[in-house]
């Protein structure tokens, strides 16, 4: 049984030693976001989890901004693979 199917996708395509890459971090944060979102649907008044979710969202947003500046092709590919929206630029 695979605990994180998205991280398994990244591990198969890239080196197994590359867990510090921005793509792997975004994938693992996305997994945590989805898990916390489903938790908060059941427990609406869990304010500590809401705060943790906001912190994780901010961290993922910063990593995606970094990735879009460094390599736009890899950024677009990751956004498409994870099925998340692209952030709006000003």
TrEMBL record:
Q: Name one GO cellular component term.
A: chloroplast
* A Pfam entry, by short name: Ribosomal_S15
Transmembrane feature ranges: none
Q: Name one GO molecular function term.
A: structural constituent of ribosome
**Does Membrane show up as a keyword for this record?**
no
Any one biological process term the GO annotation gives? translation
Q: In which compartments does the protein localize?
A: Plastid, Chloroplast
The yes or no answer to whether the keyword Nucleotide-binding is present is no
Q: Which SMART domains match?
A: Ribosomal_S15 (SM01387)
Q: State the UniProt keywords alphabetically.
A: Chloroplast, Plastid, Ribonucleoprotein, Ribosomal protein
What domain of life?
A: Eukaryota
Query: What InterPro entries would the database entry show?
Result: Ribosomal_uS15 (IPR000589), Ribosomal_uS15_bac-type (IPR005290), uS15_NS1_RNA-bd_sf (IPR009068)
The family this protein is said to belong to: Belongs to the universal ribosomal protein uS15 family.
| Subunit structure, as described in the record | Part of the 30S ribosomal subunit.
What's the protein called, per UniProt? Small ribosomal subunit protein uS15c
Which species is this UniProt entry from?
Answer: Dendropanax dentigerus
List the lineage, top down.
Eukaryota, Viridiplantae, Streptophyta, Embryophyta, Tracheophyta
């Amino acid at each position: 049984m695979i605990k994180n199917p998205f991280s398994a996708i990244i591990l198969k395509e890239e080196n197994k030693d590359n867990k510090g890459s921005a793509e792997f971090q975004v994938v693992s944060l996305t997994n945590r976001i989805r898990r916390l979102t489903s938790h908060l649907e059941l427990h609406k008044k869990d304010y500590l989890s809401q705060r943790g979710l906001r912190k994780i969202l901010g961290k993922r947003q910063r990593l995606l901004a970094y990735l879009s500046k460094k390599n736009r092709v890899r950024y677009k590919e990751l956004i498409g693979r994870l099925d998340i929206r692209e952030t709006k630029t000003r």
